[in-house]
Design brief:
heterodimer; A: about 250 residues; alpha+beta; 6-stranded antiparallel beta sheet; 6 helices; 12 strands; about 20% helix; globular; B: about 700 residues; mainly alpha; 21 helices
């Protein structure tokens, strides 16, 4: 049986498993003996990848079938500072698993999408998970946080998604509120207004935002970078998802 | 006017049954789809059969007991019973008991046919949806027509045969009581069943585990789909059958009790029903989805077109025969009121109207605001219907009076006019659960997303048809019970007791209060049954997920049968107390407090019954559609705070609109029929 390496973002961990990405997604979201933690977001990592910070060979060696011949579901190699130690070049598809175990695979691209102006709302996924509003486009936001920080706050790596602000992106005061995973709209409007009126590039919206993410609120895709380069995993639009990935789309819309 | 019309009625009803049978086999000849789809459909079919067996067993026991009581009571000459000189005529008792059992049997057969074809048509609709929306619509609507045409055919056949053989409208009262008894069990039982399964499946599946609706991993998903059939096909069919027969018999009784009215006016309701059958048979042929692919307008066109044909035939009947013109005015009043009330119900539950929009809009402020707003609009929705009922009552009364007919007869005729096109109305209504099931089967058997999109479109039209039917059936029931109320007074008066319903008399006021109390109490009992049974089923679903983790992982099949059985058992065992309220309470009030109090009791129950029925049906539909509106991506879409609040509102509204609300029609009809049936006995024996 093939051993796969998975880099989980929720929670951040490196895992060896004998399950295929779809099986692993279901296992990780739904569990076997008891209900697990729900939603899963993970990358498939090149099994040949090695790092001095991670005991990968040891983990792979332990990943053997159970006595009854069934595949081993998971061997945790590390649960701390994994994202920063995995080369971008080793990352394969990004898998988004819904809370009931349906998995969608996304391919990476180097081409960062053109931005249409206006404000942005970023949901950081790993290594920390706040909800942040910003004037900066994704590439600039990544630069500010990882590569060229202008404040004390910096991260060695980051995985995040941009959420749809819709009308609020251009008109924080009067724009209609769309589908957002945040209850306090007055606060959000205030934060967005500050970005326009004050000399700040980013502002925290919710510091205790849950690590999980409502997939349907994602604007165009996921971003991941650890100082080398920023990878972009575009998400298909709603119509394409409904047409080609109906079961996943339906679960994601719960 | 001789017996020719009765023979025409028999012919029309036989044709109606014949067309229903033809459509039954036409639907069965359609492609049943893939093996997987057929397997899913077979789970629903078996679940439905399990429930029907239990329901009909319970009904048989109730029918035999009540039939025996009726046979004994009606063996005495009730007109003379007070004098103690009543002659014993066992044949009269047996005739009444046979009519009672016949009524229950006809309603059961219509329900059985409707259910049987619904659980065959669901998978065929899903399969046809793969081809085109018009083909899928045709399969589902024709399957719904089986129920509609069988129902009106059997009802008219039964009533006409009884009248032809006995020449007495009184015996048809027994037939009507039989139909109502079944309707009470079928509607309340079906309502409890469907919401038990629905709520339990949603609360564990969607809220706790996070799986979408109609997901085959949910152990209650089959029970949920079975519930759509038992509640909305068998239950609603039995309900309209009951109102249809009750309105007819009430008018026949009024005419036969009147010293001034000709025998043709006793037969007239049967003639109107016959014309309604013919209009429905024609109207059904014109219900087609056009090039725009919209099923909603096709259903609405069918209803309006059938109404116009029926109205035209009544005009011809009145012009070409010596029937009083008042009949035409009363019929037209009923027809117009029925359609207007039906469509105003649609206003309060339609996604593109203010009430639903507003309820959805305020939902991001929480469940409490959603519930308060929905409930308020539900209360408001009573207004147009009540005005419609009041206007129909006054207009039909005065138009009949001014034409030389008794006013109360006009009210009864307007109810018959409303219900005469039930063949079409029930066809459109039974279409709803069939397409709902088709969607479930498409989902569970992993059909293409295009099929699911088509069944979604069909389903949305079904919800509108359902809302219209509910408004229609509640208003018709209101007018029917007004006529039955008058029939009760006639029967009591004919027994030599002068009845007084003055509110100056405390005993009448006491009766009014007791009557007004009954529909809310009945609603509470049926809704508590839902929560109690749902609690048991929730535990069962949780147990299955807990003990068999493979279910959620998709590697193990859930035990659907246990949930189906729990729902069926719970629903039927919960009916004892509500059934006692319907049959026992009027008798207790009558025998203890006397006929005046019973008159007040009926009046009170009619008023709160109609108001509660309208409130519950419309508020429930409104909450449901507010949730669907948000799910379509409005106000934050699925998973948003507004959506969570709307799910709470919808869950509250579920037993409102599908359990308690629709059963109230039957409750007030059964209470009125029991009172009329036992009125001579109550007039003779009462404590106060």
């Amino acid at each position: 049986m093939t051993v796969h390496l998975y880099l989980s973002l929720v929670p951040e961990a490196l895992i060896a498993s004998m399950l295929s990405p779809e099986e692993f997604g279901t296992y990780y979201a739904v569990g076997t003996e008891k209900k697990s933690s729900g939603q899963a977001i993970f990358f498939e990592v090149d099994p040949k990848f090695r790092s001095k910070y991670l005991r990968i060979p040891e983990g792979i060696a332990r990943c053997v079938p159970h006595e009854d011949g069934t595949p081993k579901s998971s061997i945790y190699i590390s649960v701390y500072r994994v994202l920063e130690h995995v080369d971008n070049s080793a990352l394969g598809q990004l898998y988004l698993t819904t809370q009931d175990g349906r998995t969608l695979g996304l391919d990476a691209t180097d081409v960062i999408p053109e931005m249409d102006g206006g404000l942005h709302l970023y949901k950081e996924i790993a290594p920390v998970s706040p909800l942040v509003a910003s004037r900066l486009a994704p590439l600039d936001f990544y630069d500010l946080i990882v590569k060229n920080p202008t404040s004390l706050i910096t991260l060695p790596a980051i995985a995040f998604a941009e959420l749809r602000l819709d009308e609020l992106a251009r008109d924080p005061e009067m724009g209609e509120v769309g589908d957002l995973p945040y209850k306090n709209m007055d606060h959000l409007r205030g934060v967005l207004k500050d970005l326009i009126t004050k000399p700040v590039a980013t502002k925290m919206v919710d510091r205790v935002s849950p690590a999980s993410i409502s997939y349907r609120t994602v604007k165009n895709g996921f971003y991941v970078g650890n100082g080398q380069k920023l990878l972009y995993y575009p998400m298909p639009d709603k119509e394409t998802l409904r047409e080609n990935n109906y079961r996943w789309w339906r679960s994601a819309n719960m | 006017m001789d017996k020719t019309w009765l023979y025409i009625s028999i012919l029309a009803s036989v044709i109606s049954i014949g067309v229903a049978v033809y459509l039954f086999f036409w639907v069965k000849r359609q492609d049943p789809g893939t093996e997987k789809a057929q397997e899913v459909a077979s789970w629903i079919r078996e679940g439905a059969q399990t429930y029907l067996k239990r329901l009909y067993l319970a009904l048989t026991i109730v029918a035999l007991i009540l039939g025996f009581v009726i046979a004994i009571v009606f063996s005495f000459d009730l007109a003379e019973i007070a004098s103690g000189q009543a002659a014993i005529q066992p044949l009269d008792g047996i005739r009444m008991a046979v009519a009672f059992i016949g009524g229950a049997l006809c309603s059961a057969v219509a329900g059985y046919m409707g259910m049987s074809i619904a659980v065959e048509a669901n998978v065929r609709t899903a399969t046809a949806a793969n081809e085109s929306i018009s083909k899928a619509f045709k399969v589902s609507f024709y399957a719904g027509s089986v129920m509609g045409l069988a129902m009106v055919g059997l009802a008219v056949l039964g009533m006409t045969l009884i009248y032809l053989i006995t020449g007495s409208a009184d015996i048809i009262l027994g037939f009507s009581f039989g139909a109502s008894t079944l309707a009470l069990l079928a509607k309340a039982g079906g309502g409890i069943y469907t919401k038990t399964a629905d709520i339990a499946a949603d609360l564990v599946g969607k809220v706790e585990v996070g799986i979408p609706e109609d997901d085959p991993r949910n152990p209650a998903v089959v029970a949920d789909n079975v519930g759509d059939n038992v509640g909305d096909v068998a239950g609603m069919g039995a309900d309209i059958f009951d109102s249809y027969v009750a309105s007819t018999v009430a008018v026949m009784l009024l005419a036969s009790a009147s010293a001034t009215m000709d025998a043709k006016y006793v037969m007239l309701p049967l003639i109107l029903c016959t014309l309604g059958i013919v209009a429905s048979l024609i109207g059904i042929q014109f219900v087609r989805v056009g090039k725009d692919g919209k099923p909603g307008p096709a259903l609405n066109f069918g209803t309006v077109f059938t109404t116009v044909i029926f109205a035209g035939m009544v005009v011809l009947l009145v012009l070409l025969s010596d029937i009083n013109i008042g009949v035409l005015w009363a019929t037209l009043t009923g027809l117009v009121a029925g359609i207007v009330i039906g469509f105003t119900s649609d206003y309060f539950t339609s996604e593109d109207r203010k009430p639903v929009y507003e309820t959805a809009r305020v939902s991001d402020s929480g469940a409490a605001i959603n519930i308060i707003t929905g409930f308020s609009y539900g209360l408001m929705s009573i207004v147009p219907s009540v005005i419609g009922i009041a206007a129909a009552t006054l207009l039909s009364y005065n138009l009949a009076e001014s034409s030389g007919l008794p006013g109360i007869y006009g009210i009864g005729v307007s109810a018959v006019g409303m219900l005469a096109i039930s063949g079409m109305i029930v066809s459109a209504d039974a279409y709803g659960p069939i397409v709902d099931n088709a969607r479930g089967i498409a989902e569970m058997s992993g059909m293409d997303s295009q099929v699911i999109a088509t069944t979604d479109t069909l389903d949305a039209a079904g919800n509108t048809a359902k809302a219209i039917t509910k408004g229609f059936s509640i208003s018709a029931a209101a007018l029917t019970v007004l006529a039955l109320f008058a029939a009760y007074i006639e029967v009591v008066t004919a027994s030599g007791v002068e009845i007084s319903l003055s509110l100056k008399e405390p005993i009448v006021v006491a009766g009014v209060f007791l009557g007004a109390m009954t529909p809310p109490l009945f609603s509470a009992l049926t809704m508590l049954s839902v929560t109690h049974n749902a609690f048991d089923m929730i535990e069962e679903i949780r147990r299955q997920f807990r003990e068999r983790p493979g279910i959620l992982a998709g590697t193990e099949k859930p035990d659907y049968a246990t949930c189906v059985d729990l729902a069926a058992q719970g629903a039927l065992s919960s009916l004892v107390l509500p059934a006692f309220l319907a049959v026992g309470l009027p008798l207790l009030v009558g025998f203890i407090l006397g006929p005046n109090a019973l008159g007040g009791f009926l009046g009170g129950s009619i008023f709160t019954g109609v108001i509660f029925a309208l409130l519950m049906a419309n508020a429930g539909g409104l909450w449901d559609n507010a949730k669907k509106f948000i799910e379509s991506g409005q106000f934050g879409g699925p998973g948003s705070e507004a959506h969570k609040a709307s799910v709470v509102g919808d869950t509250v509204g579920d037993p409102f609109k599908d359990t308690a609300g629709p059963s109230l029609n039957t409750l007030i009809t059964v209470m009125s029929l029991v009172s009329s049936l036992f009125a001579p006995l109550i007039a003779a024996f009462h404590l106060f």
